Amino acid sequence: SFFFFPPSRGPCFMLVRYIQDSTWWDEHLSEENTRFLRKLVPEEYKAQTTSKLCPLKDEPWPREAWKPGTRRVGVIAIKLGMMPIWTKTGEKHAVTLLQVQDCHVIKYTPKEDYDGKSATLMVGGKNVSPFRVRVCFSEH
User: Fold this and answer.
1) What is the dihedral of CA 132, 135, 139, 140, to 10 degrees?
2) Keywords in UniProt for this one (predicted)?
3) 37, 29 in Cβ contact below 8 A?
């Protein structure tokens, strides 16, 4: 940890925390297998994303009409930035640019197992190498 006194303010503390993430890969694979999988996994994800089996290539599901009391899952996106746009009348508006990648359901919990009132979803926002996934997320 780190401690200093800025000239115009009171004491300030900065705590540095070192976290060592462990993944299943770190604990259960030999060096040779780890090297092999580090080479194979990116190729596999690229093939999955571009293949016809990818859920993004499916036809869109029919959209149900919204009714009071219905709930929908949000979308996860990466903020690319802000930019101005102008309307036909010349008004300037600031808009946020978002990139929606491969959103998918990671875990579904039925309402009986959650709180008895509503179900829950854990939604993932993009494909990630399993080498970077914590053990708690790889269980889903």
Assistant:
1) -50
2) Ribonucleoprotein, Ribosomal protein
3) yes
What is d(CA 31, CA 37) in angstroms, rounded to the nearest whole number?
10
pTM, two decimals, is 0.43
| DSSP E strands, 41-103 | 77-86, 92-100
Distance separating alpha carbons of residues 110 and 72, to the nearest angstrom: 15
- CB under 8 A, 24+ apart: contacts of 124-129: 124/76, 125/76, 125/77, 125/78, 125/101, 126/76, 126/78, 126/101, 126/102, 127/45, 127/48, 127/49, 127/101, 127/102, 129/41, 129/42, 129/45
Specify the length of the chain in residues: 140
For 69, the token pair is 């009391």
CA dihedral 44, 47, 49, 55 (to 10 degrees): -100
